[in-house]
Amino acid sequence: xxxxxxxxxxxxxxxxxxxxxxxxxxxxxxxxxxxxxxxxxxxxxxxxxxxxxxxxxxxxxxxxxxxxxxxxxxxxxxxxxxxxxxxxxxxxxxxxxxxxxxxxxxxxxxxxxxxxxxxxxxxxxxxxxxxxxxxxxxxxxxxxxxxxxxxxxxxxxxxxxxxxxxxxxxxxxxxxxxxxxxxxxxxxxxxxxxxxxxxx
Length: 200
Prior knowledge:
200 residues, 9 strands, ComF/GntX_DNA_util-trans, Phosphoribosyltransferase domain-containing protein, PRTase_dom, PRTase-like
């Protein structure tokens, strides 16, 4: 697999979600923030910043299909060096990693949690304070349906992240709903909340 086919994210980026602003019409960003992040700010999301490695292009989608949907677990290791570098540059002090959980049904279907696999690449404590309700796959939903998909997470063990700097781990940031909703669940207990993903 040729890692040179992954495309990095180029400046200017949205200061909150890491989206490439030069790919957006001028009406879709305000200053240094994309319009989605302006809306998340209005909803008082506590997610401070998302950092991603690559643009979600055609090659990235093919890799994602192999990794996530066809069960090629070992593929996560191709991100080891780049993900560790992202962590080194952007990690807050003494963080705890929180992989975005799967529902029990999705875990059974897939056999592993891709976010948990990615978290294993980083040199930090991993915690599981959240559970997730079973819903239709995000990939099958329209953008509008994703944005209406609320309260899928439940905080079941707050002590794991109380007064800690949290980094949410997931494979992909699209609309941001998954990560922002997870962050909102942790809002009252975590000291600060960030997220790392492979793709944006």
